[in-house]
Design brief:
Belongs to the AB hydrolase superfamily. LDAH family. InterPro entries: AB_hydrolase_fold, LDAH. One of its GO terms (molecular function) is lipase activity. By secondary structure, the chain is α/β, with parallel strands linked by helices. It is 41% helix and 12% strand. The chain contains 11 helices and 7 strands. The chain has a 7-stranded mixed β-sheet, with helices on both faces. Helix 1 runs parallel beside helix 11 and helix 2 crosses helix 3. The chain is globular and about 60 Å long.
Length: 350
């Protein structure tokens, strides 16, 4: 199972700063779903002419790769949303230092050196958190935590958040959330759903599951392969279901301060929005009224700061965009446009 994706920039020469785009998966938290999307974004970024070189890094959510943990059990439970925020915040703090490079201000200068002279501890100029679905919620929570107290990672410069199909408020009000909670209310389902699911899946070899997902659900060959491997993994379903329950029991009304979303000019280093958001027109994990109320609150609050950039799809891109190659390219182009907007604002200050 693919554990992480690392796509460094191919255009360091002539750039003035270097940034990291740190990607956080949705649920199920498997980075393999996003290979086509991140490949497309990498290609678009390498063709850019802006002042910033952007590296891309993404990894599985914690607990989704059997090889990375002991089997789940009474003494080792799967991870909930709060544990994901904790684990990924620690990981992005490490990733923000994971760069060995020549100075991006002058490619002919000597290798930048850290305290021990190795040149391997130069932090990024800034980090963009990019998340899909529950990954968007995790990104907002990480940025909120860092805004309140950055003492644990003073080298980490979290500057922007890219939120794709964000499930950040009143998740239980969505169509899928309502159905999930109804299923939990049925006799024995809360305690034994995973047992029932794994028992049914034992009837099918992985190749058959892959064929079903590709031909009956319309997933791309890559996404179908990732799904089949996840369904046959030891703990994958348990972790995904546990996460789903935690999401429904955690994500209610958004209670973040307006200053997090629309920072004043005195508290931000860029005139570009801190957050860029893309919503589906009809999203089974996001209730339309919840989305529209959130957008209206951001519109009103944005009059006092740098307004959050929010786009609602006018087409029919589905929540699980990463399961379709064409949709992955479409979303990559939208993200690339956000990067260009940030680069344009940066070019005015660098």
């Amino acid at each position: 199972m693919l554990a992480s994706i690392w796509k460094p920039s191919g255009r360091l020469h002539g750039t003035k700063q270097r940034a990291l785009i740190y990607f956080v998966c949705g649920n199920p938290g498997l980075i393999g779903y996003y290979v086509d999307f991140l490949d497309a974004l990498r290609n678009l970024l390498d063709a850019s002419q802006g002042p910033t070189a952007h590296d891309i890094f993404g990894r599985n959510l914690v607990g989704f790769c059997d090889d990375e943990h002991e089997p789940f059990g009474p003494g080792n439970p799967p991870l909930d949303v709060h544990a994901q925020v904790d684990g990924l915040y620690q990981d992005v703090a490490v990733a923000a230092r994971r760069v060995s490079r020549r100075s991006t201000k002058d490619e002919d200068e000597d290798e930048d050196e850290d305290e021990d002279g190795t040149g391997n501890d130069k932090p990024y100029d800034f980090v963009i958190l990019m998340g899909h679905s529950i990954g968007a919620y995790i990104c907002v929570e990480m940025l909120h935590r860092h805004t309140l107290d950055a003492s644990g990672a003073p080298h980490l410069h979290l500057r922007h958040g890219f939120l794709l199909f964000p499930t950040i408020a009143s998740l239980a009000a969505s169509t899928a959330g309502t159905r999930f909670n109804y299923m939990r209310s049925l006799p024995t389902m809360e305690a034994h759903f995973v047992t029932y699911a794994k028992g049914l899946l034992r009837l099918f070899p992985q190749s058959t599951l892959q064929w079903i997902v590709a031909n009956m659900m319309g997933f791309s060959p890559r996404a179908a392969s990732v799904t089949a491997e996840w369904l046959k993994s030891r703990d994958g379903i348990l972790q995904a279901v546990h996460m789903g329950k935690s999401e429904l029991d955690t994500i209610f009304e958004d209670n973040w301060d307006d200053e997090l979303w629309e920072p004043s000019a005195a508290t931000t280093a860029s005139s570009a929005p801190r957050f860029f958001m893309f919503y589906g027109r009809e999203d089974h994990w996001v209730a339309n009224n919840v989305r529209d109320e959130f957008i209206e609150r951001r519109r009103r609050a944005g009059e006092k700061g740098v307004r959050t950039s929010i786009t609602v799809d006018e087409g029919d891109i589905q929540h699980a965009f990463c399961t379709k190659k064409d949709a992955s390219w479409t979303i990559a182009r939208k993200v690339h446009a956000w990067v260009e907007q940030i680069d344009k604002a940066a070019s005015e200050t660098i």
